[in-house]
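Batch queue: ligand-bound targets. Current item pairs a single chain with zinc ion. No template structures supplied; prediction is de novo from sequence plus SMILES. Inputs echoed for audit trail.
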Amino acid sequence: MKDYYDILGVSRDAAADDLKRAFRQLAMKYHPDRNPDNKQSEDKFKEINEAYSCLSDPQKRAHYDRFGSSEGMGGGYAGAGFGDIFEDIFGDLFGAFGGTGRQRAAKGSDLRYDLGISLSEAVFGAEKTIDFPKWEICKECKGSGSEPGKSPETCPSCKGAGQIRFQQGFFSVSKSCSKCQGTGHRITHPCKKCKGTGRIKENKSISLKIPAGVDTGSRLRVSGEGELGEYGGPSGDLYVVLNVEEHPFFKREGTEIFCEAPVSFPQAALGAEIEIPTIDGAAKLKIPPGAQSGRLFTIKGKGAPRVGGHQRGNQIVRIYVEVPTKLTPRQRELLEEFTSINGGEAAKGFKEKLKDLFSGVEN
Ligand SMILES: [Zn+2]
Ligand SMILES: [Zn+2]
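Prediction returned. Tokens below.
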């Protein structure tokens, strides 16, 4: 039995608003328009829809809570009222993704552009110029397809109707005129620039403002920069999908930036102030005496912001103690002396613990 609460990730006493919020978030994530040809997303999307159609209806929810099932309540809910819920919750929001059938007919298709940016551009934001090929109205003929000064003539086959009617048995059938592709006219002097098509593939260059805080997978929508719409429809949108390049030193997770820094054995033992690179430039970090390998330190405010946020996260530094691989005779002498003073034991605490452990077993 499917647990609808589980599917939506809400508690059993979730209020209607919480349900709506949870559903909305999940539906945005798994909407087929955002996950084209992804069967898994599609199934998930159906599942959250089913869960929400049940739980958002107080009567159905009560029934479900009582019997743990939505059956026996006038049919299953999968797909029932699918569109309605959608319209209700999202309004025209999904128009933004080239979503509903209505808009798809007239609107030009959306374009996708994958843009790689550096970590520092992702953290601080950037201004980028991108070039990409797209269909534009032919400026020579203003999209008419005819040489300037010439007009297309009426199609002689269909006499301008764009349709041809013929008799088939008892029926009068009409089909699109094949001589003029249903346009009703014929171009006699095709524009030389676009060869009569009225549009031309051009390299488009646009400048793009990348907000601070974006991350790999962030999408920027540039309204109206997609392909030209057919039959005079509006242009589609351009989606710029960002990919933040790997940094050799920093690793980012959300608003935090991680790095590792080596310290020498004497620095770790005696304490030291070391220089740490941050995305803003070098910063000082105080290492207290006796710091162990793997210890984490926080440098406040040197991480990444959230998009639209003002505060930046932190940088987390993980230190590791470097063991020298080559020793000069003098260094060796000093370390041997250190060892003899130290009683020859590297890890007294460890030995103590072991002793406790074994004595415990014996008793
Ligand atoms: Zn033209
Ligand atoms: Zn025709």
